[in-house]
Amino acid sequence: MPTTVHECFIDDAEDTIRIQLRKIACGSDEAALFAKKLRSIRSSDIYFPFATASPYAPHSHFSPDSSFCHKEVQYPGVILEVTNANKEKKISRLAPEYLLGSKGEIRIVIGFDLGYGTRSSPKATFSVWRCHVVDSADGKRRTPFPEIADEVRPVPGNMRISF
Question: What is the Cα–Cα distance from 16 to 163, expressed in whole angstroms?
Fold first, then answer.
């Protein structure tokens, strides 16, 4: 079961994203029109067809901590996952499963390891994962890649995030 710290962090992260989306949506340009069609779908279940299974996406069912989706697409474009040092859920395993399982429709996975539950390491890290298209012997293929990996931030009493 998620802890209070876990749930409060997710709520704060979603609020921060919603506030920024509202600011963007106030305009009349392409970004504003796009932002107006984005919504939080929280931890709605995501199912990938078995046909997309790969070594990185062997499962077909996921429940992210939070996600944001455009109204006209099947999968959310942004996934948020929050972990702690004691959990088995690791961003380095989940991010490739989301990115490859969706065949690139999930565009970014943002992972937060809050470090709570560990007295010896009161720090938080975050990671940002995207797929990059790379040339291979078989042609072009998507490769999940951490653009920011385990960036360390101290955990103050009231953690503020910025996207």
Answer: 8
pLDDT tens, 71-126? 999 999 999 999 876 555 688 888 998 998 888 899 999 999 887 655 665 677 88
Specify if 87 maps to a domain.
yes
- Would you tell me how many other CB atoms lie within 10 Å of the CB of residue 161? 14
How many domains are contained in the chain? 1
Q: What is the pTM of this model?
A: 0.83
Does 26 fall in a domain? yes
Q: Considering the domain boundaries, does residue 134 fall inside one?
A: yes
Domain span at 109: 4-154
Q: Is residue 160 a part of any domain in this protein?
A: no
Closest CA to 133 of 100, 102, 101: 100
State how far the Cα of 136 lies from the Cα of 151, in Å rounded to an integer. 29
Residue 34's H or E segment, with its range, is helix 30-35
Residue 150 main-chain phi, psi, to 5 deg: 50, 45
